[in-house]
Every structure is written in C-alpha cells, then in structure tokens.
Design goal:
The complex is a heterodimer of chains A (333) and B (314). Chain A is mainly α and 333 residues long. Chain A contains 9 helices and 7 strands; from the N terminus they run αββαββαββαβααααα. Chain A has helices at residues 2-6, 30-53, 89-97, 146-175, 203-214, 254-269, 271-274, 277-301, 313-332, and strands at 8-10, 15-18, 57-58, 65-67, 107-110, 115-118, 183-186. In chain A, the strands form 3 sheets. A two-stranded antiparallel ribbon of chain A has the order 1-2. In chain A, strand 3 and strand 4 form a beta hairpin. The termini of chain A are far apart. Chain B has a 9-stranded mixed β-sheet, sandwiched between helices. A two-stranded antiparallel sheet of chain B has the order 12-13. Chain B has 7 helices and 13 strands. Helix content of chain B is 27%, strand content 31%. Chain B has helices at 10-19, 40-52, 76-85, 152-155, 157-170, 237-243, 287-313, and strands spanning 2-5, 30-34, 57-63, 89-94, 102-109, 112-125, 145-149, 177-179, 185-191, 196-207, 215-233, 258-261, 265-268. Classes of the chains: A mainly alpha (333), B alpha/beta (314). Chains A and B meet through strand 2, helix 2, strand 4, helix 4 and strand 7 of A and strand 1, helix 1, strand 5, strand 7 and helix 4 of B. Strand 7 of chain A pairs antiparallel with strand 1 (2-5) of chain B, so a sheet runs across the interface.
Chain lengths: 333, 314
C-alpha cells in the first residue's frame, strides 16, 4: 500500500511510472536483471490494475466494461485542429437581416395529380414535364415560348448558385477550412494543336467485354473449362424475378402497379397517334370524292334506271363501276 | 478558373473524411520501414514491432535510399509516405558501421516531422525464443498496460523524450470504455543507465486474490531488447505548443429518435418496418393449404353424389 502511493498512474493510458527506482549496480547476469525488472514491472501493473478494477463497471455479455478517465499524460496531436467554417455570404446577410431558417416539409401536396410528391428531386412537384399549361400574364412578351423560358430560367438559377458556391468555397479555402471531401482544382488546360488524347480502355470496359465473350457459348459459359484462378464472368445472364402473389399490406399489388406503369407509358407515348389527323382528313376526302363520283354516275344513269331501284345501292354501284371501267378499257383499246 | 472537385462515390468520401483533421483524434497509425541496408536482427525487430502493432501499422518492405531523418532534405520522402499512408508515427531501421542496428522512432505533426529519437538495438530476443503457455498469448489489438521503471525517465533529458515516444507508440487508441476481460498484455520499460533502456513485452496472468482486484503476474512473451539512445531531436517550441492544443468542448453525439417533453419526460420513437407479407415465402407443405385442398375435393365429391342421387330420384 505504501508503494502504491509513490507511483504515478495514468489510467487513461493504462500507464504507470516508478520514478524512485534506480539500480545502484547492475546485476551481473542478464537473467537476474530481467527478473528484477519483471518484479518491479508487476508491482506497477498491479498498481494500474488496482485503479482499473476498482472503477465502476457495467456488465456486458463480453465481460465487465469499465469507463476510463481521460489520459493525464499529454501527447501531441497528429493533425491540427479543424478550423471553423466561415459563414457564407448568405449566412452573413441573413444574420444582418435577422432571417431565420425554417424547416420545410419534404413532401408537398400536388394539386395537378392530387398526390403527395417530393419537393425536390425525382418525381417532384411542379416538374417541368408535368406542367401542361402556363397561364398568360400581362408582363409576358409576345412571341416568347413560356416553356422554353421556364427551362432557361432554371438553368440560369443553377448557374448562379454554382457561382455563389464556388465563391464561398474560395473564401473557406483562404482560411483553411475547406470541407475535407472538397478540392478546388484548376480546370484542365486546353489541348493545343491537333493532338487528341489517346483513348484508353478502362478496367470496367475490358471486364464487360470479357464477360460477354465468356458467356457467348451455347451453354452460356456454364460448361467451359475454367483456368486456375479465373474468376466467374462479370456479366451473367438475366434472372427472372417473380412478383409476389399475395398483396402486401402497405404497397398494394406490385404486379398491378407494374402493369399500370407499362400501360400508362404506352398510352402516353402513342397518345398523339390515337387521333391521326392526317389519316382522318384523308379518309374524309376519299369519302367525299366517292360521294361526288357516285352522284355524278347516278345522275347520268337516272335517265336509264328507274328511281324505284334506288335502295339497291350496291348493285347499282357495281354495275356502274363495271360499266365505266369497261368503257374506259374500250377507249384505251 | 477553379473547379469544385468532390468525390464521385460515398466510399471515397468516407475515406477522405476518415483522414481529415478531427476534434478528437482516433489512434495514430505507425509506418514501419527501412533504409538501404539492414541486419537480420533489425529485420526481426521491425517485423515484430509490426506484429505488436498489427491493425494500426503499415509495413514497407522495400529499400529506401533517400531517407535520412536527421539530415535536412532527407525527410521529404518520409513525409510523403506519411501523407500517403496517413501514418503519424514511424519506425525506421538502418544498419551501418557507425551505427549498427539503428532504429529511428519519430512522430509527425500535420505530415511534417515533429520529433525524432534514435536508438541502437542490443541483446534482442525474438518472440519465438520464448516458451510459455500459448493460452496466455495476447490477442491482436488489445490495449496494453505500460510500465516505466527508473528515475532516469525523469531526470535524463533523452530518456524523458524516449519515454514519451514509446508511450505514444505502444498505447494504441485512446478508449473510453475498457473491457476488463480483454486485459492481457503489458510493456515494461526499465532505465538501466542514463542512455540504456530495457524494453520487454509481457503477457498478463490474472490470478485470484480473494478481493475484487486480481493478482497480476507477468509472463515474458517477447520481444525483449535493450535500446541505447544515440541522437534525439526535440520538437521546436512553437510547433509543440500548436500540437498540444486540444478541443475545449467535445463534440456532442446526436441522439436520434429521443426527445424530451415537459409533461411526459423522455420520449422515444420506435420505427417498425412494413410487414412484407407479399414477399414471404410460403412453405409448400403447409398443413392449412393441404386441408383446404382436401376440403375442396370433398365438396366436389359431395356435390356429385348429391346430383346423382337427384338424377336417380327422378
């Protein structure tokens, strides 16, 4: 117990130091020396263990867990302390004006489709593709495509944001507080002259080709002899996946959904073909022509045939046509 | 013009974030390498240090002809390696007539050399030369006990420096929670004279003592060696001050799904995923299914018989 007090124990590093021991004369043999060292060492280790095993412990299936105090021996860091990120231009402005961040919902009610949709990203609300009509305003310039303008505006906004972001990152880089995953790199210099950088095949491309070759036998590469150390081909055939038969509680029938999707796609793709205007006009014209022709023929033959035969249109038509055709032939001959 | 370059996938981003400066640092990694000429003892020393540090060490096995840590201009290559491998401790072995079995242990700060200690290795005994009960063999990556013995570590300048470096080299990661079942190794460093230190690696045998604290017994498992201090270079004062900075306030870990309410107190949210009944595989031989089929058959058979009976009656 007496000796325990004179050791310096650092529980955070599990380190103990005996600053009083010294060899008056080194023992003659190596074994003796090591033995005395180990004896002294075990005393120190015991001192550490006294500290550690007396700490309050929590039971764990792997063994008792002990919470260690922070180390008292100070050792240097390996990297400088991270610097705080300087505020962006907007953050400065917002602070000056007292603008506070508000939380927005991730999903928004879409009135056009009557569903909840994401605010941003895939399948988002008010997507350019989904806006069929843009109402005219007094400020609209005549002869301008509002849809194209919408796209253009969006592009400009994105460009502006990119510019702002770069500016803010430059400011952060000046202080040395660039986020660890961001690098500011000089854009590539233009290649002078007619030199074109030679194209190299990437590992992925080669792998893809090798995979296709390996599976292009009759058996799909199943019975091919493998070289020692050869890995299985990367491109394997497609596996059929079957949809569940029973409906789930949350999502509804997946099969139905899938079919709906396909049908919707088909219909939307061919929606302009459902009423083929050209064809319709053609048909209309042809019918009109026929009618006029028929009328002409009818008028010509009405003198010979009685009006009583009118209901038998078809017979008349045929005979009329045949007659005309034969007459034409006759003329040609 | 500048371009913003960000990693293309999350794996790279994670790797970069791992290397970035942190408020509270995780363990330092050690780079173990050698110069143009080494001796067999030195090779053994380097590999055994690598084995001791496994999990937190990188071993280079090729010759390096332009590393001379103490000379100006001889550290560029070393600093580059430190940057590439993200190691901030290094052990460099070299062997020459002037300094046989030479070991340079050093640390880096921000991938520049921070301090250096040069020691000669003598009386080296490898792990293989020790015989002991293999059940006691320390496990890879366990947190060691470290014991320093001798007043030299306080009074002599170079030994004081060596003590700090050895502690940094062997202590491993700073942990908050220690599993007492995993306590199985100790390093014992004894100052024999003003420039000589005996370093041994021991396993711990925990014996019952009747109290809460078990009786510790040291079993030497090697390696063991004498380190004779040759040259050393302390960090300059400004750099030391900067490197010793610590974060004032520890970053708080965000606790998810736990909120506090004035009336109800602590509230936890539990999310239960949707039961995917549709994807559940039905066993083919379910008894229920069988019974249904059987009953259906029975029904058909019953109807037939009843129809026949009717026909017969007519």
């Amino acid at each position: 117990m007496e000796s325990g007090r004179q050791y310096q124990v650092d529980l955070g590093n599990l380190m103990a130091y005996n600053s009083f021991h010294s060899f008056p004369s080194l023992p003659s043999s190596r074994e003796e020396l090591v033995k005395t060292c180990l004896q002294e060492g075990s005393k120190l280790v015991q001192a550490i263990a006294d500290g550690v095993f007396n700490l309050p412990s929590a039971e764990d299936p792997d063994g008792p867990l002990v919470k260690l105090p922070p180390p008292s021996t100070k050792l240097p860091r390996e990297k400088p302390l991270p610097k705080p990120k300087p505020p962006t231009k907007w953050e400065k402005f917002a602070e000056k004006k007292g603008i506070k961040k508000r939380k927005k919902d991730k999903v928004v009610w879409d009135e056009q489709t009557g569903t909840w949709k994401r605010r941003y990203g895939y399948d988002r609300v008010n997507d350019d593709k989904d806006v069929p009509i843009i109402e005219a305003k007094m400020s609209d310039e005549p002869g301008e495509d509002p849809f194209a303008k919408r796209l253009d505006d969006k592009k400009k906004r994105v460009e502006k944001q990119d510019k702002n972001r770069l500016q803010n990152l430059k400011q952060a880089a000046k202080v040395g507080a660039l986020p660890s995953h961001v690098k500011l790199a000089a854009t590539a210099l233009p290649i002078t002259g007619t030199q074109v950088p030679s194209k190299k095949f990437t590992k992925d491309e080669l792998g893809n080709v090798a995979g296709i070759v390996a599976t292009s036998t009759a058996s799909g590469g199943k019975f091919d002899k493998k070289l020692p150390g050869e890995k299985p081909a990367k491109k394997q055939g497609k596996h059929r996946k079957f949809l569940p038969v029973v409906e789930g509680s949350g999502t509804g029938s997946q099969e139905k959904e899938q079919m709906d999707k396909v049908l919707n796609k088909l219909i939307s793709k061919h929606s302009h073909e459902i009423l083929n205007v050209d064809k319709a006009i053609n048909m209309y014209n042809v019918k009109k022509e026929k009618k006029t022709k028929y009328r002409k023929n009818h008028e010509a033959k009405s003198s010979s045939t009685s009006s009583k035969l009118r209901p038998k249109k078809n017979i008349n038509k045929k005979t009329a046509k045949k007659g005309s055709a034969s007459s034409k032939k006759g003329k040609a001959l | 013009m500048l371009k913003i370059k960000t990693p293309k996938n999350a794996r790279v981003k994670r790797a970069l974030e791992k290397r970035a400066p942190k408020l509270v640092e995780t363990g330092k990694k050690t780079l173990i390498l050698q110069g143009t000429k080494t001796s067999s003892t030195l090779n053994a020393v380097l590999t055994e240090i690598y084995h001791l540090k496994k999990g937190g060490a990188v071993r280079f096995t090729r010759k390096n002809d332009n590393i001379r840590p103490f000379e100006s201009g001889g550290e560029t290559s070393l600093e580059f390696f430190s940057l590439k491998t993200d190691c901030s401790l290094f052990v460099y072995g070299s062997h020459s007539k002037k300094r046989p079995d030479n070991l340079v242990i050093g640390r880096t700060y921000d991938h520049h050399i921070y301090d250096l200690v040069e020691v000669g290795v003598e009386n080296f005994k490898s792990m293989d030369s020790f015989t002991y009960d293999k059940k006691l063999a320390p496990r890879v990556g366990s947190k060691p006990f470290i014991a320093f013995i001798g007043e030299g570590f306080e009074s002599v300048d170079q030994l004081k420096h060596l003590k700090e470096v050895l502690l940094d080299l062997f202590r491993g990661e700073v942990v908050e929670n220690l599993n007492l079942a995993g306590v199985d190794r100790a390093y014992v460093c004894t100052a024999l004279s003003s420039n000589r230190v005996l370093l041994t690696h021991c396993a711990l045998r925990l014996k019952k003592s009747g109290t809460l604290v078990p009786r510790m017994e040291l079993v030497e498992v090697g390696p063991s060696m004498d380190l004779v201090v040759r040259r050393h270079r302390l960090p300059n004062e400004g750099l030391r001050k900067e490197a010793m900075k610590t974060a004032k306030d520890q970053p708080k870990k965000k606790v998810k799904n736990v909120s506090k309410d004035a009336i109800e107190g602590k509230i936890g949210k539990i999310y239960i995923p949707d039961q995917k009944i549709g994807e559940m595989a039905l066993p083919n031989k379910a008894k229920g299914v069988k019974r249904e089929r059987r009953e259906a058959k029975q029904k058909i058979a019953d109807e037939r018989t009843s129809k026949k009976q009717k026909e017969d009656a007519e």
